[in-house]
Amino acid sequence: MRTKSTKSTESTECTKSTKSTKSSRKKLAAAALLAAAALTLTACGGGDDTKDPVADVSMESDSGKAATVLDKPFEKPDLVLTDTRGKKYDLREETKGRPTLIYFGYTHCPDVCPLTMNNIAVAKKALPKPDREKLKVVFVTTDPKRDTPAELGKWLKGVDADFTGLTGDFATIQAGARQLGISILPSKKEKNGKITSVHGKQVIAFSPKTDAGYVLYGESATVDDYTKDLPELIKGETP
Predict the structure, then answer these.
(1) Which has more confidence, 232 or 192?
(2) What is the pLDDT of residue 191?
(3) Alpha-helix residue ranges (DSSP H) falling in the chain
(4) Which domains are present in the chain?
(5) pTM of this prediction?
Protein backbone atom coordinates (compact mmCIF):
# COMPACT_ATOMS: atom_id res chain seq x y z
CA MET A 1 0.00 0.00 0.00
CA ARG A 2 1.32 3.43 -0.90
CA THR A 3 0.23 6.32 1.28
CA LYS A 4 1.00 9.99 1.53
CA SER A 5 2.86 11.39 4.49
CA THR A 6 4.63 14.59 5.41
CA LYS A 7 8.42 14.89 5.40
CA SER A 8 10.21 14.74 8.77
CA THR A 9 13.83 15.47 9.63
CA GLU A 10 14.50 11.93 10.77
CA SER A 11 11.90 9.38 9.61
CA THR A 12 8.45 9.32 7.97
CA GLU A 13 5.41 7.38 9.14
CA CYS A 14 3.29 5.84 6.39
CA THR A 15 -0.36 6.55 7.29
CA LYS A 16 -3.56 5.86 5.40
CA SER A 17 -5.14 9.12 4.32
CA THR A 18 -8.93 9.24 4.55
CA LYS A 19 -11.64 11.80 5.13
CA SER A 20 -11.90 12.27 8.85
CA THR A 21 -12.94 14.66 11.57
CA LYS A 22 -10.58 17.17 13.15
CA SER A 23 -10.16 14.78 16.06
CA SER A 24 -9.04 11.98 13.75
CA ARG A 25 -6.56 14.27 12.02
CA LYS A 26 -5.10 15.24 15.39
CA LYS A 27 -4.65 11.59 16.26
CA LEU A 28 -2.87 10.95 12.97
CA ALA A 29 -0.64 13.96 13.52
CA ALA A 30 0.27 12.72 16.98
CA ALA A 31 1.14 9.30 15.56
CA ALA A 32 3.36 10.91 12.95
CA LEU A 33 5.21 12.87 15.62
CA LEU A 34 5.78 9.71 17.65
CA ALA A 35 7.14 7.98 14.56
CA ALA A 36 9.48 10.88 13.84
CA ALA A 37 10.80 10.73 17.38
CA ALA A 38 11.68 7.05 16.95
CA LEU A 39 14.62 7.51 14.61
CA THR A 40 15.36 4.45 12.50
CA LEU A 41 19.09 3.87 12.52
CA THR A 42 21.40 0.93 12.00
CA ALA A 43 24.57 0.55 14.01
CA CYS A 44 26.90 -1.91 12.34
CA GLY A 45 30.19 -2.97 13.84
CA GLY A 46 33.02 -5.43 13.53
CA GLY A 47 36.37 -6.21 15.03
CA ASP A 48 39.46 -5.78 12.93
CA ASP A 49 39.13 -5.78 9.16
CA THR A 50 40.16 -9.43 8.88
CA LYS A 51 36.97 -10.65 10.52
CA ASP A 52 33.34 -10.47 9.47
CA PRO A 53 31.66 -7.54 11.20
CA VAL A 54 28.80 -8.04 13.60
CA ALA A 55 25.72 -5.83 13.43
CA ASP A 56 24.01 -4.07 16.31
CA VAL A 57 20.64 -2.63 15.30
CA SER A 58 19.38 0.20 17.49
CA MET A 59 16.04 2.02 17.68
CA GLU A 60 14.39 -0.13 15.05
CA SER A 61 10.99 1.45 14.39
CA ASP A 62 10.11 0.64 10.79
CA SER A 63 6.43 1.29 10.15
CA GLY A 64 6.03 -1.96 8.23
CA LYS A 65 5.07 -0.09 5.08
CA ALA A 66 7.34 -0.42 2.05
CA ALA A 67 7.04 3.13 0.76
CA THR A 68 5.86 6.57 1.74
CA VAL A 69 4.81 9.14 -0.85
CA LEU A 70 5.88 12.52 0.48
CA ASP A 71 3.57 15.53 0.42
CA LYS A 72 6.64 17.77 0.49
CA PRO A 73 9.37 16.20 -1.68
CA PHE A 74 13.04 16.56 -0.79
CA GLU A 75 15.28 18.75 -2.88
CA LYS A 76 18.17 16.78 -4.36
CA PRO A 77 21.32 17.44 -2.28
CA ASP A 78 23.97 19.69 -3.77
CA LEU A 79 26.68 17.05 -3.40
CA VAL A 80 29.98 16.96 -5.24
CA LEU A 81 31.90 13.80 -4.33
CA THR A 82 34.27 11.24 -5.88
CA ASP A 83 33.09 8.21 -7.84
CA THR A 84 34.65 4.74 -8.08
CA ARG A 85 36.93 5.90 -10.91
CA GLY A 86 38.35 8.63 -8.74
CA LYS A 87 36.54 11.27 -10.79
CA LYS A 88 34.59 14.28 -9.53
CA TYR A 89 30.85 13.52 -9.44
CA ASP A 90 28.27 16.30 -9.21
CA LEU A 91 25.12 14.52 -7.99
CA ARG A 92 22.65 17.07 -9.28
CA GLU A 93 24.32 17.41 -12.66
CA GLU A 94 24.92 13.69 -13.23
CA THR A 95 21.39 12.63 -12.29
CA LYS A 96 19.43 15.57 -13.70
CA GLY A 97 16.26 14.39 -15.45
CA ARG A 98 16.94 10.76 -14.54
CA PRO A 99 14.91 8.50 -12.23
CA THR A 100 17.29 8.12 -9.30
CA LEU A 101 17.48 6.07 -6.11
CA ILE A 102 19.87 7.28 -3.40
CA TYR A 103 21.03 5.27 -0.39
CA PHE A 104 23.59 6.06 2.33
CA GLY A 105 25.49 3.05 3.67
CA TYR A 106 28.91 1.42 3.66
CA THR A 107 30.69 -1.63 2.27
CA HIS A 108 31.58 -3.19 5.66
CA CYS A 109 27.91 -3.31 6.66
CA PRO A 110 27.06 -6.98 7.27
CA ASP A 111 23.36 -7.01 6.54
CA VAL A 112 21.13 -3.99 5.88
CA CYS A 113 23.25 -2.30 3.19
CA PRO A 114 23.96 -5.34 1.01
CA LEU A 115 20.37 -6.56 1.37
CA THR A 116 18.94 -3.20 0.32
CA MET A 117 21.25 -2.81 -2.65
CA ASN A 118 20.74 -6.40 -3.81
CA ASN A 119 16.97 -6.01 -3.59
CA ILE A 120 17.18 -3.00 -5.91
CA ALA A 121 19.60 -4.80 -8.23
CA VAL A 122 17.31 -7.81 -8.60
CA ALA A 123 14.30 -5.60 -9.24
CA LYS A 124 16.23 -3.60 -11.82
CA LYS A 125 16.94 -6.75 -13.82
CA ALA A 126 13.20 -7.22 -14.33
CA LEU A 127 12.98 -3.91 -16.21
CA PRO A 128 13.14 -3.63 -20.01
CA LYS A 129 16.62 -2.64 -21.16
CA PRO A 130 15.65 0.97 -22.07
CA ASP A 131 14.32 1.49 -18.53
CA ARG A 132 17.37 -0.13 -16.94
CA GLU A 133 19.55 2.34 -18.82
CA LYS A 134 17.51 5.30 -17.56
CA LEU A 135 17.63 4.34 -13.87
CA LYS A 136 20.40 5.75 -11.69
CA VAL A 137 21.16 4.04 -8.39
CA VAL A 138 23.58 5.98 -6.18
CA PHE A 139 25.26 4.47 -3.12
CA VAL A 140 26.91 7.13 -0.92
CA THR A 141 29.31 5.76 1.68
CA THR A 142 28.94 6.72 5.33
CA ASP A 143 32.41 5.33 6.06
CA PRO A 144 34.73 7.24 3.68
CA LYS A 145 37.90 6.43 5.64
CA ARG A 146 37.63 2.78 4.62
CA ASP A 147 35.47 3.10 1.52
CA THR A 148 37.97 4.35 -1.01
CA PRO A 149 36.92 4.61 -4.67
CA ALA A 150 38.59 1.25 -5.30
CA GLU A 151 36.82 -0.42 -2.36
CA LEU A 152 33.48 0.97 -3.44
CA GLY A 153 34.02 -0.16 -7.01
CA LYS A 154 34.95 -3.68 -5.95
CA TRP A 155 31.94 -3.98 -3.64
CA LEU A 156 29.41 -2.57 -6.10
CA LYS A 157 30.71 -4.80 -8.89
CA GLY A 158 29.38 -7.73 -6.87
CA VAL A 159 25.96 -6.06 -6.69
CA ASP A 160 25.49 -4.21 -9.98
CA ALA A 161 28.40 -2.78 -11.91
CA ASP A 162 26.20 0.04 -13.19
CA PHE A 163 25.42 1.38 -9.72
CA THR A 164 27.25 4.59 -8.82
CA GLY A 165 29.40 4.63 -5.69
CA LEU A 166 30.42 7.92 -4.09
CA THR A 167 32.90 8.81 -1.38
CA GLY A 168 34.54 11.95 -0.08
CA ASP A 169 34.75 14.18 2.97
CA PHE A 170 32.55 12.86 5.80
CA ALA A 171 31.23 16.29 6.78
CA THR A 172 30.07 16.86 3.19
CA ILE A 173 28.40 13.46 3.06
CA GLN A 174 26.72 13.98 6.44
CA ALA A 175 25.38 17.37 5.38
CA GLY A 176 23.98 15.87 2.16
CA ALA A 177 22.27 13.06 4.07
CA ARG A 178 20.79 15.54 6.53
CA GLN A 179 19.09 17.37 3.65
CA LEU A 180 17.15 14.14 3.05
CA GLY A 181 16.25 13.63 6.70
CA ILE A 182 18.83 10.85 7.01
CA SER A 183 21.12 10.79 10.05
CA ILE A 184 24.61 9.32 9.88
CA LEU A 185 27.42 9.34 12.42
CA PRO A 186 31.20 8.94 11.97
CA SER A 187 32.52 5.40 12.24
CA LYS A 188 34.35 4.81 15.49
CA LYS A 189 36.45 2.09 17.07
CA GLU A 190 35.19 0.86 20.42
CA LYS A 191 37.41 -0.22 23.32
CA ASN A 192 36.86 -3.85 22.37
CA GLY A 193 38.21 -3.16 18.89
CA LYS A 194 34.83 -3.24 17.17
CA ILE A 195 34.23 -0.60 14.53
CA THR A 196 30.72 0.80 14.59
CA SER A 197 28.90 2.96 12.07
CA VAL A 198 25.42 4.38 12.50
CA HIS A 199 23.31 5.37 9.50
CA GLY A 200 19.69 5.78 8.44
CA LYS A 201 18.16 3.01 6.34
CA GLN A 202 16.02 5.04 3.93
CA VAL A 203 16.13 4.85 0.14
CA ILE A 204 14.92 8.04 -1.53
CA ALA A 205 13.45 7.94 -5.05
CA PHE A 206 13.83 11.08 -7.18
CA SER A 207 11.52 11.94 -10.05
CA PRO A 208 12.94 12.44 -13.56
CA LYS A 209 10.28 15.13 -14.07
CA THR A 210 11.06 17.36 -11.10
CA ASP A 211 14.37 16.00 -9.75
CA ALA A 212 12.70 15.97 -6.33
CA GLY A 213 12.77 13.08 -3.87
CA TYR A 214 9.11 12.15 -3.60
CA VAL A 215 9.06 8.53 -2.41
CA LEU A 216 10.81 7.12 0.66
CA TYR A 217 11.48 3.41 1.16
CA GLY A 218 12.19 1.88 4.53
CA GLU A 219 14.11 -1.24 5.51
CA SER A 220 11.00 -3.38 5.06
CA ALA A 221 10.95 -2.79 1.27
CA THR A 222 11.43 -6.09 -0.57
CA VAL A 223 12.46 -7.15 -4.06
CA ASP A 224 8.77 -7.43 -4.94
CA ASP A 225 8.11 -3.88 -3.73
CA TYR A 226 10.87 -2.44 -5.90
CA THR A 227 9.93 -4.66 -8.84
CA LYS A 228 6.36 -3.36 -8.66
CA ASP A 229 7.31 0.31 -8.17
CA LEU A 230 10.31 0.86 -10.44
CA PRO A 231 8.32 1.07 -13.71
CA GLU A 232 6.26 3.90 -12.19
CA LEU A 233 9.26 5.63 -10.63
CA ILE A 234 11.09 5.60 -13.96
CA LYS A 235 8.18 7.51 -15.49
CA GLY A 236 8.10 9.93 -12.59
CA GLU A 237 4.71 8.68 -11.48
CA THR A 238 3.47 7.82 -8.00
CA PRO A 239 3.69 4.08 -7.29
Answers:
(1) 232
(2) 82
(3) 22-37, 91-95, 112-125, 129-134, 149-157, 170-178, 223-234
(4) 2-234 (3.40.30.10)
(5) 0.76
